[in-house]
TrEMBL record:
Protein name stated in the entry: Metallo-beta-lactamase domain-containing protein
Cofactor: Zn(2+)
SUPFAM superfamilies xref list: Metallo-hydrolase/oxidoreductase
Organism of origin: Zonotrichia albicollis (White-throated sparrow)
Pfam (any one): HAGH_C
Extent of Polar residues compositional bias: 1-14
InterPro entries per record: Clx_II_MBL, HAGH_C, Hydroxyacylglutathione_Hdrlase, Metallo-B-lactamas, RibonucZ/Hydroxyglut_hydro
Entry's Gene Ontology cellular component terms: mitochondrion
Length: 372
């Protein structure tokens, strides 16, 4: 496994994406369908509700108490273990039918875990070396490793949440030479190799680039697999930053921070394949269809997702080009979406500040939609 660090100029210029940069972290220091429309009454009621949980705070966001219990205490780990057990009983073969993605020299195997999570086993087929992204359930991941007959060399964690990092300990005990990669800003279990923004890691012939994308957690990272050597498009493993037609909740960041991180993903190019951390497509597309009533790309994708999920088939990957046609969280610049939310740009308002307002309102409505 080889690691390549970016230049200091690259680190200082892009590492924080709009966040106030804290003190330097020393390398090696371990620091997460229905197609019915909203009625007019529902829409008006939503618009009259007060500010959402996530205020525009200068440096940090105070997460709700339940989140703090889950993310920062042993109670969260016990809850995670209970969820793993329940999911194994309910979905003995996984919540979705995995569909491997193969190009000459590389294989990506989605591993459905818990009730809607995905881990990903990425294999260099020439050397049988492999890396896993976000190993939630170690038994499911180990079963895939054994079935594929590969050697686990690396674990890449997008963030600290147990449903993305809970399998680290068990897998490291099973594979003693395995390295664990992630941000030093998140308390990732068994972290051995803290990464900085734009740092690259090589596993066999696989090259991953880590990108800092704070917001969901302060240390959230995504990983981009270079598809060039295999004749494949780039592959983005987005964790809880970006889903098909959705995005993660900004538990530990402001709307401005989350917007900047989403912009990082968009900058990767339209042909980039999106491999999200959750199977949320049907829910996210249905919500999006309530905001944009005349979006034909959205309607087609929703119909496709309904068919996929009826057969328990995975909806990933999509492409970033597709996402920009129907994912509302990547369309904060679109006038039709802004008007649907009842928002207009004030005279002299910075365009990105306005887009952050749009994102904040959209995220608030999405949270209300999930609660109903």
């Amino acid at each position: 496994i080889a690691t390549t660090q970016p230049s200091m100029a690259q680190q200082s210029g892009t590492a924080w994406h709009g966040m106030a940069q804290p003190g330097t972290v020393q390398q090696g220091t371990a620091a997460s369908c229905s197609t019915a429309r909203l009625s007019t009454a529902q829409s008006n009621s939503t618009a009259q509700l007060g500010p959402g949980t996530w205020g525009l705070m200068p440096r940090a966001v105070c997460p709700p108490p339940r989140y703090s219990l889950y993310a920062r205490t042993r109670l969260g780990y016990l809850f995670y273990q209970r969820q793993v057990k329940k999911a194994r009983e309910r979905y003995p073969h996984g919540h979705s039918v995995p569909q491997p993605y193969c190009f000459p020299g590389v294989k990506i195997l989605p591993i459905p875990v818990l009730s809607n999570n995905y881990s990903y086993l990425v294999i260099d087929t020439g050397s049988s070396q492999a890396a896993v992204i976000d190993p939630s359930d170690p038994l499911a991941v180990q079963a895939a490793i054994e079935e594929e007959g590969v050697m686990l060399e690396a674990i890449f964690c997008t963030h600290k949440h147990w449903d993305h990092s809970g399998g680290n300990e068990a897998l490291c005990q099973k594979h003693s030479s395995c390295r664990v990669y992630g941000s030093a800003l998140d308390a990732i279990p068994r972290l051995t190799n803290p990464l900085t923004d734009r740092e690259k890691v090589t596993v066999g012939c696989l090259t991953f680039e880590a990108l800092a994308t704070p917001g969901h957690t302060v240390g959230h990272m995504v990983y981009v697999l270079d598809g060039g050597p295999f004749g494949s498009p780039p592959c983005l493993f987005s964790g809880d930053l970006l889903f098909l037609a959705g995005c993660g909740r900004p538990f530990e960041g402001s709307p401005e921070t989350m917007l900047a991180s989403l912009d990082v993903a968009v900058s990767l190019g339209e042909d980039t394949l999106l491999w999200p951390g959750h199977e949320y497509a049907l829910e996210c597309l249905t919500f999006a269809s309530l905001l944009e009533l005349d979006n034909s790309a959205l309607e087609q994708k929703l119909q496709w997702a309904v068919q996929q999920r009826q057969e328990k088939r995975s909806t990933c990957p999509s492409t970033l080009g597709e996402e920009q046609t129907y994912n509302p969280f990547l369309r904060t610049h679109r006038p039709e979406l802004q008007e649907a939310l009842g928002l207009w740009q004030a005279g002299g308002e910075d365009p990105d500040a306005f887009r952050a307002r749009v994102l904040k309102e959209m995220r608030r409505r999405k949270d209300l939609y999930q609660a109903t």
